[in-house]
Write a structure and sequence with these properties.
Helix content: 40-55%
Number of helices: 19
Oligomer: single chain
Number of strands: 8
Structural class: mainly alpha
Strand content: 5-15%
Radius of gyration: 26 Å
Largest sheet: 2 strands, antiparallel
Length: 460
């Protein structure tokens, strides 16, 4: 039996930075809340202590309890936030209409503990709209996917609740005023499906209660979800020159900058946010994390996305801040060649074989009840993704040994033999392809070259 692929968690990790409201420009609180002033403890995340904050009476009432006894650490985090500077406090975010599905009465106030993107969008409309158009907002759609069959059926629902849904998001169910189904809450999955109908969780990237942009800009933030055997962007970034430069130069990244424009506010290294979201001299900040991605590497066969050339041109504008035109074009030529190799040599032939087996009635309609289905799934979902993502992000070890080597080993020693066992002759057309003719045996001259090389280099 094949041994499961294991990847160590590295301290430098990649992030495809994800959604959250851009809190560096927080708007004033709702007009309905009356203002007063409250002396605050110095906020350690700013160079100058904040002496007075214009806070609503409702927020002050919250702080009188929460600052000292209820949730003092959360309150302290908020005190160092840009929300606090702008006078946006507890009540401004947590107040809820009595008709809200998550509202409940608390010390004379109608509040909610689940602050959704719709709530954040009252101040951060642009960021919310961009996020709604992103692939992140659709992450909860895994609930009806093949992956979810593994999570909820083959593995078990508790595994999916504590695993898959904590990244992708799940449907949050309300059981009563201020009460939630424990199987669905807590959850800060990026595509969380909220009781108010909105999708997502700003705090997936801008952690409560500081909601810091500097946290969202760091690759470790994205590494909560983007790592592991099927999407190891964290590990790939860590081994890349980008990740090495970030770790070595983290003190020069100016992560607390309000604008954080590449080439203006920092130049030491790119993070996930730099490439996928953040501003450059030519591009604005966006919360659509896929706006600059031209390929989708998720499916069995890689596909170009709609408007791929425009998307690619924007990403290349980011690259051009550090790299010359020849370098950028050369990288994309290598990347495209690797993706095409995976598609043409392995993915398309394997998918065709699976279709022939299903059409011949050699596979049942139930997924994962036959060994070949597991083999095929890992071929594209694990090994194939690693190869493609490694090429995209310049991680040579993930492109080669964790990627194409594993693809080839699986394809030739497991997938083809298992398919042939189910339906003799089903792999004949594939084996006859030029890419696979080497299976018929290397020529005497080719073998001699290999033997000569090893003799010269290793003495044997």
């Amino acid at each position: 039996m094949r041994q499961p692929f294991r990847i160590p968690f590295l301290t430098s990790v990649f992030a495809v930075a994800a959604f959250a409201a851009a809190l560096h420009a927080a708007a004033p609180p709702a007009a309905a809340a009356q203002k007063t002033e409250l002396k605050a403890k110095p906020a350690t995340s700013f160079k100058k202590p904040i002496k007075k904050l214009p806070l609503s009476k409702e927020t002050i009432a919250c702080l009188e309890c929460h600052r000292e006894s209820a949730t003092p650490a959360a309150t302290k985090q908020w005190e160092g936030s840009r929300h606090a500077v702008a006078g946006v406090g507890c009540y401004e975010c947590h107040s809820a209409a009595k008709t809200s599905p998550t509202a409940f009465e608390h010390n004379g106030f109608s509040i909610t503990v689940l602050v959704s993107p719709r709530d954040c969008g009252k101040c951060h409309a642009k960021e919310t709209k961009e996020f709604e158009a992103s692939h992140h907002a659709k992450a909860g759609q895994i609930l009806g996917s093949l992956d979810n069959v593994l999570g909820e059926v083959a593995e078990g629902i508790p595994a999916a609740n504590s695993g898959c849904k904590q990244c992708h998001g799940g449907v949050v169910k309300v059981t009563g005023p201020g009460k939630f189904d424990a199987a669905t809450w807590p959850n800060t999955g990026i595509g969380r499906i909220n009781p108010d109908g909105s999708r997502g969780s700003c705090s997936a990237c801008h952690s409560r209660h500081a909601f810091s942009s500097s946290v969202a800009r760091q690759p470790e933030n994205c590494g909560k979800c983007h790592l592991g055997p099927d999407h190891p962007q964290a590990e790939i970034y860590a081994e890349s020159k980008h990740g090495i430069a970030y770790r070595a130069k983290i003190g020069e990244m100016n992560l607390d900058s309000k604008s954080w424009v590449l080439g203006k506010d920092y130049s030491a290294a790119p993070t996930c946010a730099t490439c996928h979201m953040s501003a450059t001299p030519e591009l604005p900040l966006t919360h659509d994390v896929g706006a600059r991605i031209s390929w989708t590497l998720r499916p069995e066969v890689s596909q170009k996305l709609e408007n791929s050339e425009t998307r690619r041109a924007d990403m290349q504008k980011v690259c051009a801040n550090c790299h010359g035109a020849n370098w950028v074009q050369g990288h994309y030529a290598q990347y495209d060649a690797a993706v095409s190799l995976y598609n043409d040599k392995f993915a398309i032939p394997a998918k065709a074989i699976m279709k022939k087996l299903r059409d011949a009635g050699k596979l049942t309609p139930t997924p994962f009840d036959e060994k070949l289905e597991w083999t095929y799934y890992e071929l594209w979902h694990h090994e194939g993704r690693r190869a493609r993502m490694g090429a995209a992000m310049m991680g040579p070890d993930y492109t080669q040994w964790h990627g194409f080597y594993e693809v080839a080993k699986n394809f030739y020693t497991e997938f083809l033999p298992q398919a042939e066992e189910l339906l003799p002759g089903v792999t004949a057309d594939v084996k006859a392809m030029d890419d696979h003719k080497w299976l018929q045996g290397l020529s005497k001259e080719d073998r001699a070259k290999i033997e000569s090389y090893y003799q010269k280099r290793y003495g044997k």
